Amino acid sequence: MSTDTTTEPAQVPAGPGDQSRRSGLPSWAVQGLVSLSAILLALLVGAVLIIIGDDQVKAALGYFGAAPMDTFSAAFSAVGNAYKALAVGALGGVTPITESLTAATPLICGGLAVSLAFRTGLFNIGAQGQLIVGAILAAWVGFAWHLPPGIHLIAAILAGLVGGAIWGGVVGLLKARTGAHEVIVTIMLNYVAIYLLQWLLTTTTFKRPGREDPISPIVDANAQYPQFGSTRLHVGFFLALAAAAFVWWLLNRSTIGFELRAVGANADASRTAGMSVGRAYFIAMLVAGALAGLAGSQQVLGTDLPLTDGVAASVGFDSITVALLGRGTPLGTVLAGLLFGALNAGGLQMQLQTQTPLTLTTVLQAVIVLFVAAPALVRSVFRFLPKERGVGAVLAKGWNG
Amino acid sequence: MHLELSGLTKSFGSLVANDQIDLVISPGEIHCLLGENGAGKSTLMNMLYGLLQPDSGEIVIDGEKVAITSPSDAIKHRIGMVHQHFMLVPVFTVAENIMLGRENTHPGGVLDRKKANALVTELSERYGFEVNPEAMVEDIPVGVQQRVEIIKALTNDARVLILDEPTAVLTPAEIDELIAVMRQLKENGTSIVFITHKLKEVKAIADKITVIRRGKVVGQAEPSASEEELAELMVGRAVDLVVDKEPAQPGEPVLRIEGLTVIDERGFTAVDGVDLEVRAGEILAVAGVQGNGQTELAEALLGLTPIAAGRISLDGKDLTGVTTRQRLDAGIGYIPEDRGHDGFVGSFSVAENLVLDLFRREPFGKGLRLRTDEIEKNANERIEEFDIRTQGADLPVSSLSGGNQQKVVLARELSRPVKLLVASQPTRGVDVGSIEFLHTRIVKERDQGTAVLIVSTELDEIAALSDRVAVMYRGKVVGVVPSDTPRDELGLMMAGVPRTEAHEVAIENPTTLGTI
Fold it and tell me: Which of A106, B68, B187, B295, by CA, is between 20 and 30 Å from A93?
């Protein structure tokens, strides 16, 4: 699984100006370098925030004139301790690693949902809504149906896929038929999904008997993703990897993917070559929705087990940042999902051990994506980086897909 | 004003766009810069106009070395430029466009329109421009818009005027008027740098010709040089300007267009009741000035633009209302006018672009599976057959030169059986060497019995390729004439003059280009 040479976006014939800082490096290497630099820069920004928020640094600053080195050593140890706790919490042992992978699972699937749409020229902001609807259907099949082992899980997962696909497919259909902008439609459908979930949890069909708070019955054991030993890691993680492999095959080795990529890179030329641009949008959103629905099933059948109004947390929105960092490629999305999963899991430990709030990891994620989306900014710091012309350039450019 | 460029060099990465270019422009001379697309003409002029900075070399004006770091510097040094794409605000009047950026105001910030109007009237009278200062720019013809651009430069007291491909958008009659304007300016002592790749124009107007090839000055020529000599200098080898072609052997009608009407997005009638017929084994050229409905005609044939009325049939089969894909499958090959926009996916590899409309068919697509090995094999064959110059089939097509990009499009369209080839501006922005190849290939296709419809605004191309010429003006076909119709007559028809009248007028009033 590697990034091929065809991941570049639509581009007018390169004028001489575009060649100014191109290097001999393949585009995936350039993208990797930019991403790594962005992560490094984000950690630096995070360090500054840790120092500013640290009580001991503040105390040492009070007598800065008398013993300036105290301030520096306090700052140094604050940053060191926080990042150490973050790293240990993410990777230090079996439990941390499985926690990281568990957190990464829905992020990978959600990220794929956004990436696939990106490659078709669509900005899918609606992973959150698609994920929620997928989770609703998966949960309902999970607790309301009673089927034999194996079959029940498959049925529940399929229900999740269908739910997401419907929520995504509607967007594709509207875009294809009426030209409605997918960004607007997906944002609005996110709201619809969120309130649909809240309402459903007040109905007798979904509400757990005997409970007043919005929570559904626990899904049947037969409908739960099998977990590994006493960890929370479940089979859904491997399903996510399989989904990534599938998306890679779909994009690079299937006739449908050829059409999706062509439409994403140059819709006019695709139309002139006899492709149906609307059909491509519909297919892309249908599959993207199903992928987000898969993430929804992982949340509810793998980790949460009952359906609550917090089932999606912010996974759907984080998926957008995962896809951005992953540059719209399946491999990149998997790597970005793993990184964000590790940050989430490690962030909890960091908060417990060093009083550095969990929100720092959110800031780190945001700053990473900010730097990735503004490659020029990263390049102004790391001047050796060659100019890239990849999907990243498109992602940085904008929302008018 | 005496302008001297010496040793100007500009590179972009490993590409040397301008290599030690020396150029001397004397006062009151029309200096023609001749070169193929991508030869470095525009880079050179952009440096002179301050849009690009040279890596080395200097610009000397009247014996004094100057640094031009921005267009406003250039204007200060009395250098003006008329870009190929006009920089005018369509919904402003001529005078408003002229005063844009240097508005005179009454006290209280009210615009002094009178002063601007007077300025335009004065300049217009001095040079015989015939421009109404109060006309809205979007309402006046392209040729007049160009004059507005020239007036804009003149209000800055330009002594050196750079005209970048100024004739590309003009009718032959308008070109004649432009030539007259240029002579006027010259008499007033303004020097003109005239950028072009059209040989006839160069011979008609230039005092001095400098030829640029691959970023280097390869020679000076006199206007008396023959077109063949100029072309050879420009391309670097002997070029066959005339396409060898036998008389057509037309067969049965293949394409039949009846009463075709297209209403464009703005509600204007772009194509107005057009009837045309193209027979097997003949090339019908649709001539006309850009924007007279030819583009829409071609797009309507492919189903890319909805039609308001009319009927299109191919080999007797009605194609009206079917999808683009069905039309392609029925045997239409299509070379779109704007290849970067509609012809290929720039970021896709050469190999992928060569199957852009074939990827579903065997052997490239088998069910859902894409056969990348077959796509690569096909690419290697087409690259060989069509002499596509690329470092590899897996490189993005955007890295190729215009001519080679066009060969990719043509190769793709001819790699399936076609009954009708529709080619819009097949050689626009293509180097002379590739033009030769593309023309020969199109004629070869005709000789194999394909019906060919060419849309072109270049009379040279029409003369070289066509067996019959349909002239379009404001969406209507003014007439269908034989390919040996004199240039002036075609030019008049392109301005809407009916054929019989055009014939007489052309004899009485020969134009400069028509008589060369």
Answer: A106
Check if the beta carbon of residue B124 is closer than 8 Å to that of residue B151.
yes
Query: Which of B408, B429, B431, B411 has its CA nearest to residue B421?
Result: B411
Q: Quote the CA–CA distance of B409 and B335 in Å, as a whole number.
A: 7
| Residue-wise DSSP of A162-189 | HHHHHHHHHHHHHHHHH---HHHHHHHH
Q: Which domain holds residue B386?
A: 348-415
pTM (global) more than 0.90: no
Q: Cβ contacts (< 8 Å) between A6 and chain B: which residues?
A: 347-349, 352, 396
Contact assessment for residue A112 and residue A291, using Cβ atoms and an 8 Å cutoff: yes
For chain A, the structural domain boundaries read 26-397
CB contact under 8 A, A253 and B370: yes
Contact status of A179 with chain B (Cβ, < 8 Å): no
Contact B340 A13 (CB under 8 A): yes
Cα–Cα distance for residue pair B180/B166, rounded to 1 Å:
13
B326 and B251 co-located in one domain: yes
Same-domain pairing of B197 and B78 = yes
Nearest CA-CA distance, residue B335 and chain A, Å: 9
Which residues in chain B have Cβ-Cβ distances shorter than 8 Å to A5?
Answer: 349, 394-396
Question: Looking at CA atoms only, how far is residue A4 from chain B in angstroms?
Answer: 10
3-state class (DSSP) for residue B164:
strand
pLDDT (tens place) for every residue of chain B, 516 residues total = 889 999 999 887 777 888 999 999 998 899 999 887 778 888 888 899 998 899 999 999 998 999 999 888 898 899 999 887 788 898 898 988 888 877 777 777 788 888 888 888 888 888 777 888 888 888 888 888 888 888 888 888 889 999 988 887 777 778 888 888 888 889 888 999 998 877 888 888 899 999 998 888 998 888 888 888 888 888 887 777 677 888 889 999 999 999 999 998 878 899 999 999 999 999 999 998 878 899 999 999 999 999 999 999 999 999 998 999 999 999 999 999 888 889 999 999 999 999 999 999 888 998 899 999 999 999 999 999 998 988 889 999 988 878 889 999 999 999 999 999 999 999 887 777 788 889 999 999 999 999 999 999 888 889 889 999 999 999 999 999 999 898 888 988 988 888 888 888 888 877 766 654
B493 vs B273, B428, B471, CA distance in Å? 18, 22, 7
Q: Which two tokens stand for residue A116?
A: 């696939």
Given CB atoms, is A16 within the 8 Å cutoff of chain B?
yes
* Closest CA–CA distance from residue A149 to any residue of chain B (Å): 32
Contact A266 B345 (CB under 8 A): yes
Q: Decide which of B235, B253, B276 is a domain's last residue.
A: B235
Considering CB atoms only, which of A254, A265, A274 is closest to B325? A274
Q: CA-CA distance, B243 to B483, in Å (whole number)?
A: 13
- Is residue A23 less than 8 Å (CB to CB) from chain B? no
- Determine whether the interchain pair B394/A5 forms a contact, defined as Cβ–Cβ distance below 8 Å: yes
Q: How far is A223 from chain B (nearest CA, A)?
A: 32
Task: Indicate if B391 and B478 belong to the same structural domain.
Answer: no
Q: Is B345–A269 a contact, with Cβ atoms under 8 angstroms apart?
A: yes
Q: One-letter amino acid identity for A251?
A: L
Q: Prior bond to B363 cis, omega within 30?
A: yes
Q: Is the separation of the CB atoms in B211 and B233 below 8 Å?
A: yes
